[in-house]
Amino acid sequence: MKKLACVTALTLGLVACNGEKAPESPAADASAAAGNAATAPISAATSAPAAPVETFKEVTIPSGTTLRLSLQSAVASDTSRVEQPVRATLRSPVSVNGQVVVPAGSEVGGVVTEAEESGRVKGRARIAMRFNSLHASGDSYDIRTSGYAQEAEATKKQDAAKIAVGAGAGAALGAILGGGSGAAKGAAIGGAGGTGVVLATKGKEVRLGPGAAITTRLTAPLTVRIKT
Description:
Layout: H1 2-17, H2 26-38, H3 44-47, E1 56-61, E2 66-71, E3 75-76, E4 85-90, E5 94-96, E6 99-102, E7 107-116, E8 126-136, E9 139-142, E10 148-151, H4 156-200, E11 207-208, E12 213-217, E13 222-227
């Protein structure tokens, strides 16, 4: 018995000397796992930079600023009516202190304010419009502008020429038919005939089609929003 006890004690001593470790507890395993997770590399999804946020500022365009427009709607003194919608686009950008605040091509809207067709005896044809809205860079604004108007050319010189031609033709015919007195009577008759032609003929109309270049200006300051 003593011999067996010695062998057992010797065996246990050898195991202790060989450094064999006892099984680790579940708590120790959980702590090790947590440590490994803390030191793991961050994924690309969580480390990507956030998208930049757009910022804006307000800029005031002063009253009196010129707006150079290209008409997109057709208007005419003899066919358009008051309050008829009119569209146009900016032919050139609007800048403040060297910075473009309203780009070329921005839409401008308005209405016809006057449409007078030509008269037979007097009165020249006239078309007028005013713009009241602006759409630029995704934003819409109410604007105040000066009116734009165009009047037909005067026809007095052409009318006088028609009367003179009529009088001359009548005088020539009168001279052939009745001498000097006949020429005078013929001139009177011819002149009357030329006047009749003038009275029966209407003057020119004003017609503006898409692409017509027109100009107006702001009559009140306009504050717009632009990207910084």
